[in-house]
Amino acid sequence: MSQQAKTREATQDGGLSPSSSGVCDLLGDFDRFAVFFDIDGTLIDLAATPDGIVVPPELPSNLAAVSQKFGGGLALVTGRALPYADRLFEPHRFPIAGLHGAEQRMASGTVDRITVTPEFEALKAEIASNAAGWDGVLIEDKGAAVGAHYRQAPERQAELDALMENAAKKAGSEFSLQRGKMVIELRPARASKGEAVKRFLNEAPFAGRLPITVGDDLTDEAMFRAANELGGHSIRIGDKTLPDGSTTAATLLLSSAQELRDILASLAR
Ligand SMILES: O=P(O)(O)OC[C@H]1O[C@H](O[C@H]2O[C@H](CO)[C@@H](O)[C@H](O)[C@H]2O)[C@H](O)[C@@H](O)[C@@H]1O
Ligand SMILES: [Mg+2]
User: Would the keyword DNA damage turn up in this protein's UniProt record (predicted)?
Assistant: First the structure.
């Protein structure tokens, strides 16, 4: 276990636990738990743009080794679209939920994806066209979802909020807005990351195991709550306060994606 890894426990008074050995020990209980990892900001460091991320070369094989130790009970649960997320970890393919839980590929290989309607295609084109002149704003087409990024143009946040709120009204009740780190997304409303975790747990090799969910952003709160409800554990990368000022449901904290990767490297050995 890396000495650099420092875990802070989320307590009511904000107290910190002395080291990350607790998390390492927890994740090392391979027969008892199944693990669910968010991608951006959790396994991989955040970057200026969605395509600017760098996957550390050892990460895919470390995840594969850890998955094997959990008997295959390791899944990715991400806001990314499934094909994009799969490419990040080639040649390995893990069970995965995409678009914040709306799409899912089970361990059996069964895939549940969403058909993109012509109306949603038109709405995405309208969003892109409205934001076309806004320097630094990036519209990410994710098929059945769309993200409006303002990391490089924070001054545009209010305008983008208004644009996406208007688009959400047009999209109707089958879609919902998902706020995240310097992004506002329009995504299928039909599932959350928490529901995706529960679906995984209904099937082998996850069934009979307790969940440990690891994430960093608002969308991950649903899977933190699911893990807590089911008697598992929830780990947030970051501190206990969320961007909207509320407190995370996660019961453990890690300081960075690098800290998590160090723990994974240690578990993979
Ligand atoms: O659920 P996740 O796996 O964490 O995905 C959440 C979103 O991640 C990406 O956006 C975020 O990461 C970008 C790259 O580091 C960063 O530039 C952006 O500001 C972040 O919001 C991705 O682009 C989204 O589609 C995901 O929903
Ligand atoms: Mg994330």
Answer: no
